[in-house]
Amino acid sequence: MLDWMYLGTYLPDLGEVMRPVIRGTFFLTPILWPPERLPESVRWVVDYNPLAYLVNAYRDLVLFGEPLGGQATLYFALFSAALLVGGFALFVRAKWGFSDRL
User: Fold this and answer.
1) Is 18 exposed, middle or buried (0-12, 13-18, 19+ CB in 10 A)?
2) pTM for the complete prediction?
3) Angstrom distance (rounded) from CA 87 to CA 90
4) How far apart are CA 80 and CA 78, in angstroms?
5) Helix, strand, or coil here: 2?
């Protein structure tokens, strides 16, 4: 995941903006509610939320004893690896200007 602390070096007010965004994301992730409670027209929120996969996988494993699905886990791993590579490339490119900004 992109580390907002480093981006905050260049955009100091980003921390104030991200706080309510992260809090809102908590309510869009099926932590407090099961995804089956959503109407079909809004279910795309869970389908495209990467944290929802982890929450549902843990819920299925702990409550029902069902192992993780292979294809969904592969997609999540590829998405995570791409995010890691992209975030690291951005960090390596921008880290040289940190001392000037601080």
Assistant:
1) middle
2) 0.58
3) 5
4) 5
5) coil
Residues of the chain with pLDDT under 50: 1-2
The total number of residues written for the chain in this structure: 102
Give the residue among 17, 66, 21, 72 at the shortest CA–CA distance from 48: 72
What is the 3-class SS of 23-72, one letter each residue?
HHHHHHCCCCCCHHHCCHHHCHHHHCCHHHHHHHHHHHHHHHCCCCCHHH
The full set of domain ranges for the chain reads: 4-101
Q: What is the DSSP string of 10-27?
A: H-TTHHHHHHHHHHHHHH
